[in-house]
Amino acid sequence: MSTETLSPRTPGKPRSTMPREVVRRRRYGGHAWHPTLGTGPLPRVLTLLALALMTVIWLVPFGWGVDTSFKTEVDASASGAGWIPKAGFTLDAYRTILGQGNLPVWAVNSVVIAVCVTAITVTISAMAAYAFSRTLFRGRRVFFAVTIASIMVPPQILIVPLFRQMLAMNLVDTYAAVILPQVVAPAMVFILKKFFDGIPRELEEAARIDGAGSFRVFWSVVLPLSRPILAAVGIFVFINTWNNFLWPFISTSDPQLMTLPVGLSTVKDSTGLRNAQESAASILGSIPLLIVFMLFQRQIVRSVATTGLGGQ
Amino acid sequence: MASLSTPARRAAAGSRRAGSRWSAAMDRRRSPGGAGWLFATPFLVFFTLFLLVPIGIGLWMSFTDASLTGHGDGVFVGLDNYTEAFGDSQVWQTLGNTVWFTVLTTVPLVIVALVMALLVYTGMPGQWLWRLAFFASHLLPVAVVYQIWSMLFQPDRGMLNSVLQTFGMDGIAWLTDEKYAMWSIGLVTLWWTVGFNFLLYLAALQAIPDHLYEAAALDGAGAWRRLWSVTLPQLRRTTALIAVLQVMASLKVFDQIYLLTKGGPNGATRPILEYIYDTGFTNYRLGYASAVSYVFFGIIIILSLAQLKIFSRRED
């Protein structure tokens, strides 16, 4: 989407790999004239105020969860919204949760399942996208059309038949039952195919003249050029799988196979008020993705743009 | 998309201009049909097994009285399930709830995301913090969202009611009053999922070339004028895309409602997917649940075609 649709509209666009904010700050010296805000300090101050206000609103629920996790159960269930507990802050909730033994199991399950699903999805989707983009095989057009059409199927309506299928295949309460149905990602095949279509064929031609076979070309020419898009697809799939609730919830009833979201939801159901412990469990459960995002947020924003989803 | 230009992209633009010398004949010679199949097979196997087959099974089941407990297939009952579905008031009520939720959430999810992206796009210092604050909630598993908000919503101890009381207002039964329950769910959904739309908008904004702003400024356009005549028009296609994706996502709502209210109070927040789930897994009527699924699927397809039509007409 990007190159094709953008270039006619932006003939003189400077190509730069520098982050936009840096370019802009340098060009306008950080003040004086600003492309969206204009001149003068007032718009800047108002923008900062609005940003700060929305940030506070969006972070307060997080903050409340973190705050609660460091309270005693008595304070956590006390009336009123005091941020500072009467009995002082404590690590009790974390000690109890980590001592229960279930959370580590769910965390390991989440990691195993998310990593497996991501690895398999990226591999088979990239291969299929390459086949659709670059090779001719009988039925290529039909299969591609069916793949695209299937993007519209809401995954939830497949739950019942899939569950029956798992029963018939004798896979209920196995890792395979949780993982395998999640690796079919037609939208990712479509995104990857669009990207492969834009890679110049001359590069592959050169490799073929040097005697490389199809697989060799794919592995050492196409894949290295596709790193940003593969990262984007991997990030999407990983986040979705990590947070997927319905399918893991239905395909496993064995606590030993539960993922974090499913396991955490059962903690709440089986007990009464344990606000501090549940908050601690929630924080432990969401830390992995938050750390990944904090470390890679610039790349993630860029990857989203690479997919063409965020482009013009 | 200045920051995104990779060598591959630059070369890609070049090769397209040069005209593709790689003909179909070349394809055939260099990568015979066998290689294509080899690359496509793993995906197609999974695709068939876990997408096409379940679609087929579901369609077949919707014409039978299959149940979760019974072994083997149910008895063929023709269109009975569909006739029942169209006359089932629960189907219409839960479908109504789903549509109401979609209407309630789509507009704020688009507008708030746009406002966030426009604010962050100004390049004010603290980019890292703003992006984290607005996107981080999108990374939370639904169980965590549920945990945090069920605390905030608690009628007697929750933070939201304490805030209302500080301002001299009465507390609200956020999740247990039929009047407010769906709005509360909408609020949670806005907080939880706006980050993805925000990111899409931010990526789109970063692709707007600077010279458009410079040209507009030279023509004497002020900051507001530039927002209305440069920024927003450039975002039209992105907005259409986000709106379509958002409607599709909102129609599929299930997780947060199932955890926060179990569809209550009195069925006021029960979405159609929960009805399908309850029918299939609690009442064991898989055949009927499948029929309702396919009615819902049909509605989704009609809606997406209608949306595509509306947006493609607006493009012209």
Structural account:
The complex is a heterodimer of chains A (312) and B (316). Chain A is an all-alpha fold and 312 residues long. Chain A has a domain at 101-270: Orthogonal Bundle (MetI-like fold). In chain A, 68% of the residues lie in helices and 0% in strands. Chain A has 16 helices and no strands. In chain A, helix 11 (201-209) runs antiparallel to helix 12 (214-225) and helix 15 (260-270) packs antiparallel against helix 16 (275-306). The radius of gyration of chain A is 25 Å and the shape is globular. Chain A starts with a helix and ends in a 6-residue tail after the last helix. Mean pLDDT of chain A is 78; it is low at 1-31. Chain B is an all-alpha fold. Chain B has one domain (89-315): Orthogonal Bundle (MetI-like fold), CATH 1.10.3720. Helices cover 72% and strands 0% of the residues of chain B. In chain B, helix 5 packs across helix 14 (272-282) and helix 12 packs antiparallel against helix 15 (286-315). The longest helix of chain B is centred in the first third of the chain and has 33 residues, at 89-121. The model of chain B is unreliable at 1-30 (pLDDT under 50). Chains A and B meet through helix 1, helix 2, helix 3, helix 6 and helix 7 of A and helix 1, helix 2, helix 3, helix 5 and helix 6 of B.
